[in-house]
Amino acid sequence: MCNRAFAESGILKSHLLTHSKEKPHACKVCSKTFARSGYLKSHLLTHSKEKAHSCEVCSKAFAHRNSLKSHLLTHSKEKSHICEICGKAFSIRVNLLVHLRVHTKEKPYSCDVCSKAYSDSGSFKRHLSIHS
User: Fold this and answer.
1) Which of 42, 68, 72, 80 has its Cβ near the most Cβ atoms within 10 Å?
2) Which SUPFAM superfamilies match (predicted)?
3) Three-class SS of residue 35?
4) For the chain, how many helices (H) and strands (E)?
5) Which tens digits make up the pLDDT trace of 4-29?
6) pLDDT (tens digit per residue) in 100-121
């Protein structure tokens, strides 16, 4: 499919999931699914109370070092990701991508219980708590 080669069959099998979009590893807490067990293991830290990486500027804590690295950009004055529709600027590209849903009206997070839909995962997660 992509001409990549792997020394171990297990790694090849795992890689093939990226082509099939199959995500057989599900989080028992939030039901999010992952192609690789390592991704699920890493994700589980987000549900843990353990947050070993703290911001030196505002003391906000994160489970993953990369989350802290992204967060540190929010303290930067540099906002190089600019919305072409309204001009709003963001220091983190993902925040711009989420913002664009304001203009497109896209709501990719849908509740299985009541079918209410949300444009961002944070609002969706808050909503889910009303059903539990």
Assistant:
1) 68
2) beta-beta-alpha zinc fingers
3) coil
4) 5, 8
5) 888 888 888 878 877 877 788 899 98
6) 999 999 999 999 899 999 998 8
Residue 129 DSSP one-character state: G
Q: Which of 85, 97, 91, 89 is nearest to 121 (CA)?
A: 97
Instruction: Tell me how crowded residue 107 is: count the other CB atoms within 10 A of its CB.
Output: 14
Q: Give the number of residues written for the chain.
A: 132
State the alpha helices, DSSP H only, in the chain. 9-20, 37-44, 65-72, 93-104, 121-128
C-alpha pair distances (Å), 98 with each of 17, 50, 87, 89, 90: 26, 27, 14, 12, 11
Q: Which residues contact 128 (CB under 8 A, 6 or more apart)?
A: 30, 111
Q: Which two tokens mark 39?
A: 């991704």
Which SS3 state, helix, strand or coil, does residue 36 take?
coil
| Tokens, residue 57 | 């500027």
